[in-house]
Structure formats: C-alpha cells, structure tokens
C-alpha cells in the first residue's frame, strides 16, 4: 500500500475513498483503466482487465464506452476475464453474465471476441474441475490480471465467493448463498428461478491480480462494506481478505460509506467540529448505548465514553441534555401538513397555508405506502390536497402466477358476458404468452403492460383505504422503467421532463420522496435523482421557494431519532389502517415462505421499523407511541455526514 492512512482512515484496513456520487467515483476508476490501456497500447502490449457484473459496474462500463466513443479509447489491445457466471445458463440467456457483458460493454467497444473470457455456465459437471483449472491457466498465460473490478454482495461475497470461501480458494463451482439468490430473485422473476450454482474465480485467484478496485454504492451495502474494510479477515466475509492485498482501493459513495467509523462515530477518530447535527447524533448514540433517557445522562457518562470534548464545549451535560431533548421533542408532530392557527416556531411544518397541496412520489407501487401510509392517511384526514404519483408501474415485480390468476378471472367474465368479448383476442394472446414462456424469460411488452395493470389495481385499492381521491392517484409509467430491466435501467431527459411538468402543474407546498441512500441504479435511486433534477429545473419558480421537500424512509433500516426531522406518530388504529393499505399490494408478498419467515414480508418490516422508531423515542425519554413514521428534509439529507 502506498501512503499511510490518514487520521480519519485509521480504522480502515483497505484504502478507501468516498465520493459524493457513484458517477464521480467511476469517472476516476475509468480514467485510471484508460491510462493503463493507453500506456500498454503505446508499448505494444495488452492490458488485462478482470471484470464484474451486477448493478455496481454498470456506470463504470458506460463511462468506458463514452471514452471509447468520444476520446478514441481502443479496446483492441484488451483481454478480459470475468469473475463468474451462473451455472446452467446458456450465454444468450437474458440473465447470463455473458449476455450482461455483451449488452453493457462488449457490444459497444472494439474488443476482439477471442480476447473475452467469461466462465462457461454450460460446462458439464464432470468437466468443471478441468475447465476451472484451464481458466486459471489462461489468466496466467496473459501475464495475470492488471486491474480486477469487484462489487460486493450483501453476504460479503466477491465474485460468487460466498461466506465460507477460504482465502486460498481457486476458480471452482460454488453454491449460491440464500441471500444472494434472494437479491437476484427480481432479475429472474422469482427466487425459485435463480440458479443454485455458479462458477467463480476463487478468493485466491482474485488476490493474484496486480490491482484491485472494489466498488460499492447505496446504503444496503453499508454494513457489509464496514465489515470488509474494518472487520477481521474472516472467511464468513470473503471480501475482508482484500485487506491482504497490497494494492487494493475501495471506491464508495456516501451511502455505502455511512457505517465506517469515520462517519458513524467521527469523535472516536479525532477532534471534530461539534455541529448541531453531529452533537445530536453523539447524544442520541450515547443515550442509546447506555440505555438511558437523554435527560438522565451525566457528565461522567460523556467523559467515560469519549465525549469529554462535547461537554467542554457545551458547558455541562445538564444544558446539553435539555437542548437535545427539546430538539427531539420538536420533531414529533401529528400534523404533517402543519397545524392551522398554532404557533409553528418549533414545528417542522409551517401552519400557513392551512390547506396545502401535497405531492407524494412513489418509485414503484408500495414504496411510499411502506414509508408513509399513516402520514398520507393523516394528511387526507386534515383536508390537504394530496396527489400521489407512482413513477413506475412496477410491472417487473409481478410473478407470472398473479398474471395467470387475473387472466383466468377475465376469461370467466368474458365467457359469461359476451359484451366483453372484444377483449378476448388480447386475453388469448396473453394466455398464450404465459404458457409459452419459461418462468425466467423476459416478459413481452403486452405482458408487462398487463402486469402493470395488476399493480395499478392493487395501488388504487390501497389508496382507497387511505381515503385518497382516485382522480389524484397518478401513474406516470416513466419510460426509463418501461424500456429497462432491473440493474440495467437508464434514465433520460424524458423522465425528468414528465416529473418536472407534474410538479409545475401542481405547484405543491410539500413534496415527499424516497431513495436518497438507495443504490443509484435501483428504481428508488433513479427515481430520487430524477425528482431532484426536476426540482432543480424548477429552482427559480415562486412555488418552489416555499416548497418543503421531505424524504420518507422506505428501506430496510429504521432511522435513528438523530436523523429524523419530522416524526409522525401513529395510534394503534392508524397502524392498522396502514397495514390494511399495505396488504393490498398482494403481488409483492414474498414468493418464498422460508425467506418470508426469516426476514419478514416488506409490510412486517415496515411495521417493525415504525414500532422500533417509537420505542427508540420512548427509550430516549420522550412520549411512548405505538409507532412512528420518520422523515427528514431533503436539504439536510445531503449533509448527514457532518
Ligand atoms: P450488485 O452485486 O452490483 O448487483 O449489487 C454485487 C455483487 O453481488 O458482487
């Protein structure tokens, strides 16, 4: 490794750089790969690249394609080796990694087909061992991999080296971890369609590359990224073995870096500037660790837990505790649209205007409901004008069997009532398609449309439970989604325009959205960036100046009270309404009962999160509620690492 780690990086055992966005990170990685390619071309030598698949490297490949197209970067002297391939998938299968690489990179650059190596997923079982040895031999014959690109799975895998893969493991056939299969379930339209085995380079093979670049985006990777970078080297987290490599560099976006000690507990790393948000974070985390209400923290508690400087700067635990207690108290409001005729100087939402126009964005049906169904219900109850815009139909998330059920219903209806027989041709077309396709085949356009209708029907029913006006429930069906597929979406200006025009038409006083910490290529991540771009385009407009943009939590992690700027409590009855609303998205229930019991259905998770936030507030010494939905302001979300 080159330079010594800085004070901030002292807990990190892999050299790590954190970028504001995945885009800025991949520009740097692509530029360094391009430098290598140019240098080797000038020397008349090849550059050997180790490549990865999944959502993570998609932007990197787009940048390399751009360099090829705009700056004359040639791949004619490049040899590539991919990390892995699903076992049993033919190369043309839409989910095979070979196909992925063609679509995402090879088809767009001037690489020679004979220089491309992706493990063969169809090799017969008896030949696998020899084949894998041959794969390694080919790598060695090129002189070894110059730069290996790596993503990290939530299990801690690199390539498909799942937990249990030793540091000396070589290219081989492996069984996929359940969590990995679950994460791939959407790509394959059901977890049961995800191959159980794969061929992967081993950890030992990977460590032989001259340089390693580990990339990770989005907060779903944050916990495993911390384990890999700061934890012990252990085969339950194969990525932790990267710590052994002398030339490994980790590139993270802020969301993926959030669990690293330098962001999570910056005061443990060195002197800090005690900004209001950092102070709140320190007090809440101290109270939580010590299981004490905020108002019962003593000077000694601070001193004994590495927070002496906070007390030195603020005077005493007594005044600090009261200040933070009040701040937390002021986040709680049962009036998410503002409380008319009330003093609003300490409320998260202004009282005026008494009746607000509210625009809620849901990336896919169910996302916004998971995060804020109770608040939506409340906003309607308080007579605000709520428009609920679903950005995408979510048709990719509908299992075939749901479509079969709906088609069967329509068949019966059309048999009984000849007047709907016009629809019959289409029905037959749909039935035929369903019967013909293999479960993991991509859906045709008509089938996607039909599945979209199923999700829209569920969404309408769930909005009905919340009392929303059906004419204000909108489906934007954004083109990026309709044209794309999971892990490979590509948003365009037309998507931003549709969102911007809706905002302009409604001129809302409040906007609610999610996805700030999501992986940037996910539907939530793309939706978040689209809405933010649309709002930036509206920046000078008068309605925008007064508009509050709130982020709701719809992911897996409950937010801690220090991150929350508006906490909307739900009574037991309101929580029941929320669950009723969520259950209407029945096509989204887990298709795998075993996993549902392990990790919970998404609605159970939402309920648990809302209850646990309420319990957390209670433990800090605030009022005890049944459940709490949490929000933060968009502007502050940007500086959550301060
Ligand atoms: P992802 O997968 O890039 O799709 O998140 C990473 C991996 O499994 O290595």
Q: What secondary-structure arrangement, pairings included, does this model have?
A:
Blueprint: E1 15-19, H1 22-43, E2 47-51, H2 58-71, E3 78-82, E4 84-86, H3 97-104, E5 116-117, H4 128-141, E6 147-150, E7 172-175, H5 178-184, E8 197-200, H6 203-207, E9 211-216, H7 222-230, E10 248-253, H8 254-257, H9 261-264, H10 266-269, H11 276-290, H12 299-304, H13 308-314, H14 317-331, E11 357-362, H15 367-381, E12 385-390, H16 400-416, H17 424-436, H18 445-465, E13 473-475, H19 479-482, H20 493-506, E14 510-513, H21 523-537, H22 542-545, E15 548-552, E16 566-570, H23 572-583, H24 593-599, H25 602-619, E17 627-633, H26 634-637
Parallel strand pairs: 1-10, 2-3, 2-6, 3-5, 6-9, 9-10, 11-12, 11-14, 12-13, 14-15
Antiparallel strand pairs: 4-8, 7-8, 15-17, 16-17
The protein binds 2-phosphoglycolic acid.
Residues 54-56, 151-153, 487 line the site of 2-phosphoglycolic acid.
Please summarize the sheet with the most strands: 7 strands, parallel
Flag low-confidence runs: 636-642
- According to DSSP, the number of beta strands is 17
Number of domains: 3
Mean pLDDT: 93
Beta-strand percentage range: 5-15%
User: In CATH, what is the homologous superfamily of the largest domain?
Assistant: LmbE-like
CATH class of the largest domain: Alpha Beta
Q: Strands across the major sheet, in which order?
A: 1-10-9-6-2-3-5
Oligomer: single chain
- Fraction in helix: 40-55%
- Tell me the structural class: alpha/beta
Number of distinct helices:
26
Radius of gyration of CA atoms, rounded to a whole number: 26 Å
**Beginning-to-end CA distance, first to last residue:** 28 Å
CATH topology of the largest domain: Rossmann fold
CATH architecture of the largest domain: 3-Layer(aba) Sandwich
